[in-house]
Amino acid sequence: SKYLIVICSPNSASSQWVSNEVKAFIEWGRLSQIIPLIIDGEIGGGDRECLPTYLREHTRENPDDELLAIDIRENGRHKALIRVVSFMLGVAFDSLWQRYQRERRRKIIGSTILSAVIAILIYWFAVPVTISIGFTDAECNLPQMRDAKLSIDDIEYMIDDSDTVINHTLPGYRRLKNVPIAFEATYYSKTELVQQMGAGISNHIDINISRDNTFAVFAGMVIDAEGNPIEGVDVNVDNKFTGLTDNDGKFYIEIPLQHQTLTKKVIVSKSGFKTSQRDDEVPGEAITYVLHRL
Fold first, then answer.
1. Where, residue-wise, is CATH 2.60.40.10 in the chain?
2. What is the pLDDT averaged over residues 208-227?
3. CA 100 and chain centroid, separation
4. What is the pLDDT of residue 257?
5. Looking at the predicted structure, is the pLDDT value of residue 280 above 70?
6. Which residues contact 4 (CB under 8 A, 6 or more apart)?
7. Is the pLDDT confidence value at 170 over 70?
8. Per CATH, the architecture of 129-209 is what?
9. Residue 86 has pLDDT above 70, yes or no
């Protein structure tokens, strides 16, 4: 070997084998190629002496011989290693140290970026995303939803009026993807939409559900006992909404949502005919009233 790196400590200082190795190098004229690396103890420290016996005696007898000793405790492990390498290569320590620092920074940055990418991938694919869906329904006096069905990404939920929020879990990779949602129920118009998921772990959507025309339209015709249509008949609904039959005996009345109810009080009247009054009428679009002449 061209160089002899001596690990110096009180234990190695008492080793005859280590002392003989040092002696051989010095006798070959390689004192300048001996690198003492101190890990414990002190030079000239008595019981804590760290230099091998022969090396200690030689430096005492030849004080002019220069010897580079590197204390790992003062320099730190990395710096001490760079000092050893710079000595062996004959390269300035500062140059090697700066290169080492640059390489270390590059590795730290690379490792940080890799860790961040792994964390993002784990989050994106392993952490699920939850979508919660609420329902906004206008105030009215109509029956609550029944036979209601909510479809989220082709998964169906049967819901009733007690279900205010439905939670659905999607795999993480569906983030930023479009999710089809559909709602349908008796007495309601079908609602369909496509919602794009966010990048977070939860998304909330309020769906505005609307009533269909089941209770909104009150229409039909008025005929006499012989089945002939009667024109000009007054049709009164709840004493709020009225309409007259046309020459075909037909009438059509639209009722605003806030006035829609399951049953209606209906009065059908025309001069010369007996007035018809019914309190149990259910709104519809094909209702027929028969008026009898007086």
1. 129-209
2. 90
3. 40
4. 86
5. no
6. 21, 22, 25, 30, 33, 34, 35
7. yes
8. Sandwich (2.60)
9. yes
Residues of 143-152 as b/e, b for ≥16 C-beta within 10 angstroms?
A: eebeebebeb
Query: How is residue 257 annotated by DSSP?
Result: G
Can you say how many angstroms the Cα of residue 66 is from the centroid of all Cα atoms in its chain? 65
pLDDT, mean of residues 180-189: 92
Do 246 and 221 touch, CB atoms closer than 8 A?
no
Where exactly does CATH 2.60.40.1120 map onto the chain?
217-291
Give CA–CA dist 181/164, Å, rounded. Answer: 16
pLDDT at 1 over 90: no
The total of other beta-carbon atoms located within 10 Å of residue 121's CB is 11
CATH (one of 2.60.40.1120, 3.40.50.880, 1.10.10.10, 1.20.58.760) for 217-291: 2.60.40.1120
Query: pLDDT for 39-57, tens place per residue?
Result: 999 988 788 999 999 998 8
- List Cα–Cα distances, 34 to 14, 65, 78, 85, 162, in angstroms: 18, 12, 20, 13, 86
What mean pLDDT do residues 205-228 have? 90
Torsion sign, CA atoms 76, 77, 79, 84: positive
